[in-house]
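SAMPLE LOG
Freezer: B-3
Tube label: C17
Construct: single chain, 476 aa
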Amino acid sequence: MKPFINACTGILVGKKASVDGSTMVARDEDWYNGINPITYRVFPAKNYDGEHYVSDYNGFECDLHGQGCRFTSCAVGVKGYGRWDQQGINEYNVSMTGCQTETTNERVLAYDPLVPNGLDEECMVYLVLPFIKNAREGVQMLGKMIEKYGTGESNGMAFADKDEVWYMEMEGGHQWVAMRIPDDCYAIAPNIACIQEVDFDDPDNFMYAPGIRDFVDKYHLNPDPGHFNYREIFGTHDEGDAYYNFPRAWYGQKMFTPSVKQDPTSAHIPFCQRPDHLMSVQDVQNFLSSHYQETKYDPMGTYASGDERERKLFRPLALDRNQNSSVLQIRNDVPAKYAAIQWVNLGFHAFSPYVPFFANANDTPANYKVAGKNYSPDSAYWMYKLMQVITEPRYHQFINKINTYRGQVLSYGLGRIAATDAKADAYDGEELTEFLTNSNIKTADHITEMSKQIIHEMINDSLQNSLFQYEKGDNL
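STRUCTURE (predicted):
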Protein backbone atom coordinates (compact mmCIF):
# COMPACT_ATOMS: atom_id res chain seq x y z
CA MET A 1 0.00 0.00 0.00
CA LYS A 2 1.65 3.23 -1.17
CA PRO A 3 0.54 6.57 0.34
CA PHE A 4 -0.68 9.41 -1.82
CA ILE A 5 2.43 11.03 -3.22
CA ASN A 6 1.65 14.62 -2.16
CA ALA A 7 -0.12 14.61 1.16
CA CYS A 8 -0.13 16.22 4.62
CA THR A 9 0.35 19.79 5.86
CA GLY A 10 2.36 21.03 8.84
CA ILE A 11 2.43 24.12 11.03
CA LEU A 12 5.06 25.05 13.62
CA VAL A 13 4.84 27.76 16.28
CA GLY A 14 7.69 29.20 18.35
CA LYS A 15 7.27 29.84 22.07
CA LYS A 16 7.20 33.64 21.72
CA ALA A 17 4.58 33.43 18.97
CA SER A 18 2.11 31.48 21.12
CA VAL A 19 -0.30 33.06 23.58
CA ASP A 20 0.81 30.90 26.53
CA GLY A 21 4.50 30.40 25.72
CA SER A 22 4.03 26.86 24.37
CA THR A 23 5.94 25.43 21.48
CA MET A 24 3.62 23.71 19.04
CA VAL A 25 4.23 21.47 16.05
CA ALA A 26 1.24 20.05 14.27
CA ARG A 27 0.38 18.11 11.16
CA ASP A 28 -2.50 16.75 9.11
CA GLU A 29 -2.01 13.19 7.87
CA ASP A 30 -3.71 12.39 4.57
CA TRP A 31 -3.87 9.03 2.81
CA TYR A 32 -4.23 8.43 -0.88
CA ASN A 33 -7.59 6.64 -0.89
CA GLY A 34 -9.33 8.18 2.13
CA ILE A 35 -9.14 5.11 4.39
CA ASN A 36 -6.13 4.43 6.61
CA PRO A 37 -7.36 3.25 10.04
CA ILE A 38 -5.44 5.03 12.80
CA THR A 39 -4.98 4.26 16.49
CA TYR A 40 -3.64 6.42 19.31
CA ARG A 41 -1.36 4.40 21.57
CA VAL A 42 1.42 4.60 24.14
CA PHE A 43 4.54 2.49 23.65
CA PRO A 44 6.46 1.71 26.86
CA ALA A 45 10.12 2.30 27.53
CA LYS A 46 12.30 -0.69 26.69
CA ASN A 47 15.84 -1.81 25.93
CA TYR A 48 16.29 -2.11 22.16
CA ASP A 49 19.61 -4.00 22.27
CA GLY A 50 19.45 -6.89 19.85
CA GLU A 51 16.35 -5.68 17.98
CA HIS A 52 16.69 -5.92 14.21
CA TYR A 53 14.05 -3.76 12.55
CA VAL A 54 12.70 -4.93 9.19
CA SER A 55 10.06 -2.79 7.51
CA ASP A 56 7.13 -4.69 6.05
CA TYR A 57 6.47 -1.58 3.96
CA ASN A 58 9.65 -1.35 1.85
CA GLY A 59 12.09 -3.90 3.33
CA PHE A 60 14.36 -1.37 5.04
CA GLU A 61 16.53 -2.98 7.75
CA CYS A 62 18.63 -1.71 10.63
CA ASP A 63 19.85 -2.76 14.06
CA LEU A 64 18.67 -0.91 17.17
CA HIS A 65 20.66 -0.35 20.34
CA GLY A 66 20.26 1.17 23.78
CA GLN A 67 17.52 2.10 26.19
CA GLY A 68 14.51 3.77 24.64
CA CYS A 69 11.94 5.87 26.49
CA ARG A 70 8.15 5.78 26.46
CA PHE A 71 6.42 7.60 23.58
CA THR A 72 2.95 8.25 22.20
CA SER A 73 2.00 7.46 18.62
CA CYS A 74 -0.80 7.79 16.10
CA ALA A 75 0.03 4.47 14.48
CA VAL A 76 -1.69 2.60 11.65
CA GLY A 77 -4.14 0.04 13.04
CA VAL A 78 -3.95 -2.52 10.24
CA LYS A 79 -0.95 -4.84 10.26
CA GLY A 80 1.14 -5.59 7.21
CA TYR A 81 1.64 -2.07 5.79
CA GLY A 82 4.36 -0.77 8.08
CA ARG A 83 4.24 1.16 11.37
CA TRP A 84 3.49 4.75 10.23
CA ASP A 85 3.67 6.18 13.77
CA GLN A 86 2.83 9.60 12.30
CA GLN A 87 3.52 11.82 15.32
CA GLY A 88 4.03 11.66 19.06
CA ILE A 89 5.69 12.94 22.24
CA ASN A 90 8.23 11.06 24.33
CA GLU A 91 8.69 11.04 28.10
CA TYR A 92 11.36 13.76 27.85
CA ASN A 93 8.74 16.14 26.41
CA VAL A 94 10.19 16.00 22.91
CA SER A 95 7.70 16.00 20.06
CA MET A 96 8.21 14.65 16.57
CA THR A 97 5.89 14.68 13.59
CA GLY A 98 5.88 12.34 10.68
CA CYS A 99 6.34 13.81 7.27
CA GLN A 100 4.95 16.20 4.75
CA THR A 101 5.66 14.51 1.43
CA GLU A 102 7.79 16.77 -0.74
CA THR A 103 9.18 16.62 -4.26
CA THR A 104 12.79 17.03 -5.42
CA ASN A 105 13.64 18.46 -8.81
CA GLU A 106 15.02 16.29 -11.58
CA ARG A 107 18.52 17.80 -11.55
CA VAL A 108 19.11 16.86 -7.92
CA LEU A 109 17.69 13.36 -8.42
CA ALA A 110 20.03 12.80 -11.36
CA TYR A 111 23.04 13.00 -9.05
CA ASP A 112 21.58 11.69 -5.77
CA PRO A 113 18.64 9.43 -6.63
CA LEU A 114 16.19 8.17 -4.04
CA VAL A 115 17.03 4.84 -2.39
CA PRO A 116 14.24 2.27 -2.98
CA ASN A 117 14.81 0.39 0.30
CA GLY A 118 15.99 3.38 2.28
CA LEU A 119 14.80 4.89 5.55
CA ASP A 120 11.31 6.19 4.81
CA GLU A 121 8.58 8.00 6.74
CA GLU A 122 7.01 4.68 7.70
CA CYS A 123 9.50 4.05 10.52
CA MET A 124 11.27 7.36 11.20
CA VAL A 125 9.32 8.17 14.37
CA TYR A 126 9.82 4.68 15.77
CA LEU A 127 13.57 4.70 15.10
CA VAL A 128 14.22 8.19 16.49
CA LEU A 129 11.65 9.42 19.03
CA PRO A 130 12.42 6.83 21.78
CA PHE A 131 16.10 7.81 21.81
CA ILE A 132 16.20 11.63 21.93
CA LYS A 133 16.12 14.07 24.86
CA ASN A 134 15.69 17.33 22.94
CA ALA A 135 14.68 18.54 19.49
CA ARG A 136 18.22 19.22 18.33
CA GLU A 137 19.21 15.61 19.09
CA GLY A 138 16.31 14.45 16.93
CA VAL A 139 17.57 16.33 13.90
CA GLN A 140 21.12 15.10 14.43
CA MET A 141 20.13 11.46 14.87
CA LEU A 142 17.82 11.34 11.86
CA GLY A 143 20.35 13.24 9.76
CA LYS A 144 23.05 10.67 10.43
CA MET A 145 20.64 7.87 9.52
CA ILE A 146 19.72 9.56 6.23
CA GLU A 147 23.40 9.92 5.39
CA LYS A 148 24.05 6.25 6.21
CA TYR A 149 20.99 4.51 4.77
CA GLY A 150 19.54 7.02 2.32
CA THR A 151 15.83 7.58 1.87
CA GLY A 152 13.30 6.59 -0.77
CA GLU A 153 11.19 9.74 -0.29
CA SER A 154 11.55 13.50 -0.15
CA ASN A 155 10.07 14.60 3.16
CA GLY A 156 9.78 17.39 5.71
CA MET A 157 9.24 16.85 9.44
CA ALA A 158 9.27 18.72 12.75
CA PHE A 159 10.87 18.31 16.17
CA ALA A 160 10.21 20.43 19.25
CA ASP A 161 10.98 20.66 22.94
CA LYS A 162 9.98 23.38 25.40
CA ASP A 163 12.50 25.84 23.95
CA GLU A 164 13.19 25.00 20.31
CA VAL A 165 11.19 24.13 17.21
CA TRP A 166 13.03 22.61 14.26
CA TYR A 167 11.94 21.80 10.71
CA MET A 168 13.99 19.24 8.80
CA GLU A 169 13.84 18.49 5.08
CA MET A 170 15.43 15.71 3.06
CA GLU A 171 15.64 15.90 -0.73
CA GLY A 172 17.27 13.33 -2.95
CA GLY A 173 18.67 10.16 -1.48
CA HIS A 174 21.03 11.60 1.16
CA GLN A 175 20.75 15.40 1.32
CA TRP A 176 19.09 17.20 4.23
CA VAL A 177 18.83 20.59 5.92
CA ALA A 178 17.16 21.65 9.19
CA MET A 179 16.22 25.11 10.41
CA ARG A 180 15.27 26.33 13.86
CA ILE A 181 12.02 28.29 13.65
CA PRO A 182 12.54 31.74 15.25
CA ASP A 183 10.83 31.91 18.65
CA ASP A 184 8.55 34.77 17.56
CA CYS A 185 7.47 33.12 14.29
CA TYR A 186 5.28 30.39 12.91
CA ALA A 187 5.92 28.36 9.76
CA ILE A 188 3.59 26.54 7.39
CA ALA A 189 4.73 23.48 5.43
CA PRO A 190 2.72 22.18 2.46
CA ASN A 191 4.13 19.57 0.06
CA ILE A 192 7.10 21.56 -1.19
CA ALA A 193 10.68 22.20 -0.13
CA CYS A 194 10.09 25.00 2.38
CA ILE A 195 13.39 26.17 3.91
CA GLN A 196 14.83 29.14 2.09
CA GLU A 197 18.14 30.87 2.88
CA VAL A 198 20.59 28.61 4.77
CA ASP A 199 23.32 30.21 6.90
CA PHE A 200 26.19 27.72 7.17
CA ASP A 201 27.89 29.94 9.75
CA ASP A 202 24.98 29.79 12.21
CA PRO A 203 25.02 26.35 13.90
CA ASP A 204 22.53 27.55 16.54
CA ASN A 205 19.83 27.84 13.87
CA PHE A 206 20.85 25.56 10.99
CA MET A 207 22.01 21.96 10.62
CA TYR A 208 22.69 20.10 7.40
CA ALA A 209 24.30 17.09 5.74
CA PRO A 210 28.10 17.61 5.90
CA GLY A 211 28.65 17.34 2.15
CA ILE A 212 25.65 19.28 0.91
CA ARG A 213 27.56 22.38 -0.24
CA ASP A 214 30.14 20.31 -2.11
CA PHE A 215 27.32 18.31 -3.71
CA VAL A 216 25.59 21.47 -4.94
CA ASP A 217 28.84 23.00 -6.22
CA LYS A 218 30.04 19.82 -7.93
CA TYR A 219 26.89 19.47 -10.03
CA HIS A 220 26.26 23.20 -10.57
CA LEU A 221 22.83 23.10 -8.96
CA ASN A 222 22.68 26.59 -7.47
CA PRO A 223 21.10 29.19 -9.79
CA ASP A 224 22.21 32.02 -7.45
CA PRO A 225 25.72 31.25 -6.14
CA GLY A 226 25.69 34.29 -3.88
CA HIS A 227 23.03 32.60 -1.73
CA PHE A 228 22.07 29.09 -0.64
CA ASN A 229 18.29 28.97 -1.01
CA TYR A 230 17.36 25.37 -0.26
CA ARG A 231 13.88 25.72 -1.76
CA GLU A 232 15.27 27.06 -5.04
CA ILE A 233 18.12 24.54 -5.30
CA PHE A 234 16.33 21.34 -4.32
CA GLY A 235 12.60 21.98 -4.77
CA THR A 236 10.26 21.79 -7.72
CA HIS A 237 8.88 24.85 -9.46
CA ASP A 238 6.05 23.55 -11.58
CA GLU A 239 2.55 24.76 -12.35
CA GLY A 240 1.02 22.17 -10.04
CA ASP A 241 2.66 23.75 -7.00
CA ALA A 242 0.82 27.00 -7.71
CA TYR A 243 -2.52 25.28 -7.26
CA TYR A 244 -1.70 22.38 -4.95
CA ASN A 245 0.80 23.82 -2.48
CA PHE A 246 1.29 27.57 -2.35
CA PRO A 247 -2.38 28.38 -1.55
CA ARG A 248 -2.24 26.44 1.74
CA ALA A 249 0.67 28.57 2.95
CA TRP A 250 -1.12 31.68 1.65
CA TYR A 251 -4.30 30.88 3.58
CA GLY A 252 -2.49 30.19 6.84
CA GLN A 253 -0.60 33.45 6.60
CA LYS A 254 -3.83 35.21 5.68
CA MET A 255 -5.30 33.85 8.95
CA PHE A 256 -2.41 34.80 11.23
CA THR A 257 -0.73 37.72 9.46
CA PRO A 258 -3.53 39.49 7.59
CA SER A 259 -1.44 42.67 7.48
CA VAL A 260 0.70 41.06 4.76
CA LYS A 261 -1.03 40.80 1.38
CA GLN A 262 0.10 37.97 -0.92
CA ASP A 263 -0.99 36.12 -4.02
CA PRO A 264 -2.20 32.55 -3.30
CA THR A 265 -0.22 31.15 -6.24
CA SER A 266 3.02 32.96 -5.45
CA ALA A 267 6.18 30.84 -5.24
CA HIS A 268 7.73 33.44 -2.94
CA ILE A 269 5.47 33.13 0.10
CA PRO A 270 7.95 33.01 3.02
CA PHE A 271 8.28 29.83 5.05
CA CYS A 272 8.48 31.67 8.39
CA GLN A 273 6.20 34.56 9.27
CA ARG A 274 5.49 36.66 12.36
CA PRO A 275 1.87 36.58 13.48
CA ASP A 276 -0.13 39.77 13.91
CA HIS A 277 -1.43 38.31 17.19
CA LEU A 278 -0.18 35.60 19.52
CA MET A 279 -1.43 32.17 18.49
CA SER A 280 -3.43 29.70 20.57
CA VAL A 281 -3.83 25.97 20.21
CA GLN A 282 -7.31 26.73 18.83
CA ASP A 283 -5.75 28.84 16.05
CA VAL A 284 -3.54 25.93 15.05
CA GLN A 285 -6.51 23.56 15.07
CA ASN A 286 -8.60 25.95 13.00
CA PHE A 287 -5.88 26.15 10.36
CA LEU A 288 -5.48 22.38 10.16
CA SER A 289 -9.27 22.04 9.77
CA SER A 290 -9.59 24.77 7.16
CA HIS A 291 -10.85 24.74 3.59
CA TYR A 292 -10.47 28.39 2.51
CA GLN A 293 -13.49 29.52 4.49
CA GLU A 294 -14.68 33.06 3.75
CA THR A 295 -12.86 33.13 0.43
CA LYS A 296 -14.04 32.39 -3.09
CA TYR A 297 -11.90 29.23 -3.08
CA ASP A 298 -13.94 27.33 -0.48
CA PRO A 299 -15.02 24.01 -2.09
CA MET A 300 -17.85 23.73 0.45
CA GLY A 301 -19.59 26.70 -1.15
CA THR A 302 -19.81 29.06 1.82
CA TYR A 303 -21.25 32.54 1.50
CA ALA A 304 -18.05 34.10 0.19
CA SER A 305 -17.36 31.36 -2.35
CA GLY A 306 -16.85 32.12 -6.00
CA ASP A 307 -18.11 30.23 -9.02
CA GLU A 308 -17.76 26.48 -9.45
CA ARG A 309 -14.35 26.77 -11.13
CA GLU A 310 -12.94 28.97 -8.36
CA ARG A 311 -14.26 26.67 -5.62
CA LYS A 312 -12.29 23.76 -7.09
CA LEU A 313 -9.17 25.69 -8.00
CA PHE A 314 -6.96 25.03 -4.94
CA ARG A 315 -6.29 21.96 -2.81
CA PRO A 316 -7.63 22.60 0.75
CA LEU A 317 -6.27 21.19 4.00
CA ALA A 318 -9.57 19.57 4.95
CA LEU A 319 -10.42 17.00 2.32
CA ASP A 320 -11.66 13.43 2.14
CA ARG A 321 -8.15 11.97 2.47
CA ASN A 322 -7.80 13.28 6.06
CA GLN A 323 -6.99 10.47 8.52
CA ASN A 324 -5.58 12.06 11.66
CA SER A 325 -4.13 15.29 12.91
CA SER A 326 -2.19 16.11 16.06
CA VAL A 327 -1.19 19.34 17.74
CA LEU A 328 1.89 18.52 19.84
CA GLN A 329 1.99 21.16 22.56
CA ILE A 330 4.85 21.56 25.04
CA ARG A 331 3.80 24.11 27.66
CA ASN A 332 6.16 26.40 29.55
CA ASP A 333 3.77 27.72 32.20
CA VAL A 334 3.40 24.45 34.18
CA PRO A 335 5.87 21.87 35.59
CA ALA A 336 7.54 19.64 33.01
CA LYS A 337 5.98 16.48 34.47
CA TYR A 338 2.60 17.38 32.97
CA ALA A 339 3.56 20.01 30.38
CA ALA A 340 3.17 17.93 27.21
CA ILE A 341 -0.24 17.53 25.56
CA GLN A 342 -1.10 15.76 22.32
CA TRP A 343 -4.36 16.97 20.79
CA VAL A 344 -5.63 14.13 18.58
CA ASN A 345 -8.16 14.48 15.76
CA LEU A 346 -9.24 11.37 13.84
CA GLY A 347 -11.24 11.43 10.61
CA PHE A 348 -12.17 14.48 8.53
CA HIS A 349 -10.56 17.36 10.41
CA ALA A 350 -13.24 19.93 9.54
CA PHE A 351 -15.93 17.85 11.25
CA SER A 352 -14.26 15.91 14.06
CA PRO A 353 -12.77 17.49 17.21
CA TYR A 354 -9.29 17.63 18.73
CA VAL A 355 -9.16 15.59 21.95
CA PRO A 356 -6.43 16.49 24.49
CA PHE A 357 -4.21 13.79 25.99
CA PHE A 358 -1.47 14.39 28.56
CA ALA A 359 1.61 12.69 27.09
CA ASN A 360 2.84 11.45 30.48
CA ALA A 361 0.51 8.45 30.36
CA ASN A 362 0.85 4.69 30.11
CA ASP A 363 -2.37 3.85 28.26
CA THR A 364 -5.09 5.26 26.03
CA PRO A 365 -8.87 4.69 25.89
CA ALA A 366 -10.02 1.33 24.55
CA ASN A 367 -11.68 2.78 21.44
CA TYR A 368 -8.48 4.66 20.48
CA LYS A 369 -6.41 1.46 20.48
CA VAL A 370 -8.39 -0.33 17.75
CA ALA A 371 -8.94 0.52 14.08
CA GLY A 372 -9.39 -2.40 11.69
CA LYS A 373 -9.97 -2.46 7.94
CA ASN A 374 -13.74 -2.48 8.36
CA TYR A 375 -16.11 -0.12 10.15
CA SER A 376 -16.57 -0.84 13.84
CA PRO A 377 -18.57 1.19 16.39
CA ASP A 378 -15.90 0.27 18.95
CA SER A 379 -13.22 2.28 17.13
CA ALA A 380 -12.77 6.03 17.62
CA TYR A 381 -11.29 6.29 14.12
CA TRP A 382 -14.35 4.70 12.52
CA MET A 383 -16.73 6.70 14.71
CA TYR A 384 -15.26 9.92 13.33
CA LYS A 385 -15.19 8.55 9.78
CA LEU A 386 -18.92 7.84 10.17
CA MET A 387 -19.37 11.48 11.18
CA GLN A 388 -17.76 12.47 7.88
CA VAL A 389 -20.01 10.15 5.88
CA ILE A 390 -23.12 11.72 7.44
CA THR A 391 -22.00 15.36 7.40
CA GLU A 392 -20.31 15.88 4.06
CA PRO A 393 -23.32 15.18 1.76
CA ARG A 394 -25.47 17.53 3.89
CA TYR A 395 -22.78 20.08 4.67
CA HIS A 396 -24.99 23.15 4.74
CA GLN A 397 -27.66 21.38 6.76
CA PHE A 398 -25.24 20.19 9.47
CA ILE A 399 -22.22 22.49 9.55
CA ASN A 400 -23.62 24.87 12.18
CA LYS A 401 -24.43 21.89 14.40
CA ILE A 402 -20.95 20.47 13.81
CA ASN A 403 -19.22 23.76 14.57
CA THR A 404 -21.21 24.16 17.78
CA TYR A 405 -20.27 20.62 18.83
CA ARG A 406 -16.58 21.19 18.03
CA GLY A 407 -16.62 24.37 20.08
CA GLN A 408 -18.22 22.55 23.01
CA VAL A 409 -15.58 19.82 22.82
CA LEU A 410 -12.78 22.40 22.82
CA SER A 411 -14.23 24.18 25.85
CA TYR A 412 -14.65 20.88 27.66
CA GLY A 413 -11.12 19.79 26.77
CA LEU A 414 -9.54 23.04 27.93
CA GLY A 415 -11.53 22.83 31.16
CA ARG A 416 -10.37 19.28 31.74
CA ILE A 417 -6.74 20.32 31.23
CA ALA A 418 -7.12 23.11 33.79
CA ALA A 419 -8.83 20.79 36.28
CA THR A 420 -6.14 18.14 35.85
CA ASP A 421 -3.34 20.72 36.18
CA ALA A 422 -4.85 21.88 39.46
CA LYS A 423 -4.53 18.41 40.99
CA ALA A 424 -1.38 17.12 39.29
CA ASP A 425 1.13 18.62 41.74
CA ALA A 426 -0.13 16.24 44.42
CA TYR A 427 1.41 13.33 42.48
CA ASP A 428 4.85 12.27 41.34
CA GLY A 429 6.45 9.44 39.41
CA GLU A 430 4.26 6.49 38.52
CA GLU A 431 1.39 7.84 40.62
CA LEU A 432 1.34 10.97 38.46
CA THR A 433 1.47 8.93 35.26
CA GLU A 434 -1.46 6.84 36.47
CA PHE A 435 -3.41 9.98 37.47
CA LEU A 436 -2.86 11.59 34.06
CA THR A 437 -3.72 8.34 32.27
CA ASN A 438 -7.04 8.10 34.09
CA SER A 439 -7.73 11.78 33.44
CA ASN A 440 -7.10 11.26 29.72
CA ILE A 441 -9.48 8.31 29.59
CA LYS A 442 -12.18 10.25 31.42
CA THR A 443 -11.80 13.19 29.02
CA ALA A 444 -11.83 11.05 25.89
CA ASP A 445 -14.74 8.87 27.07
CA HIS A 446 -16.87 11.96 27.68
CA ILE A 447 -16.01 13.38 24.26
CA THR A 448 -16.83 10.01 22.70
CA GLU A 449 -20.30 10.24 24.24
CA MET A 450 -20.67 13.81 22.96
CA SER A 451 -19.68 12.55 19.50
CA LYS A 452 -22.12 9.65 19.56
CA GLN A 453 -24.88 12.07 20.51
CA ILE A 454 -24.18 14.42 17.59
CA ILE A 455 -24.07 11.44 15.22
CA HIS A 456 -27.40 10.25 16.61
CA GLU A 457 -28.95 13.69 16.07
CA MET A 458 -27.71 13.94 12.49
CA ILE A 459 -28.96 10.46 11.63
CA ASN A 460 -32.40 11.36 12.98
CA ASP A 461 -32.43 14.65 11.07
CA SER A 462 -31.37 12.88 7.88
CA LEU A 463 -34.09 10.25 8.21
CA GLN A 464 -36.70 12.96 8.60
CA ASN A 465 -35.55 14.67 5.39
CA SER A 466 -35.54 11.78 2.95
CA LEU A 467 -36.05 12.54 -0.73
CA PHE A 468 -38.51 9.65 -0.85
CA GLN A 469 -41.07 10.94 1.63
CA TYR A 470 -44.58 11.04 0.23
CA GLU A 471 -47.80 12.03 1.95
CA LYS A 472 -51.34 12.45 0.68
CA GLY A 473 -51.68 15.79 -0.95
CA ASP A 474 -48.01 16.13 -1.91
CA ASN A 475 -49.01 16.23 -5.60
CA LEU A 476 -51.49 19.04 -5.16
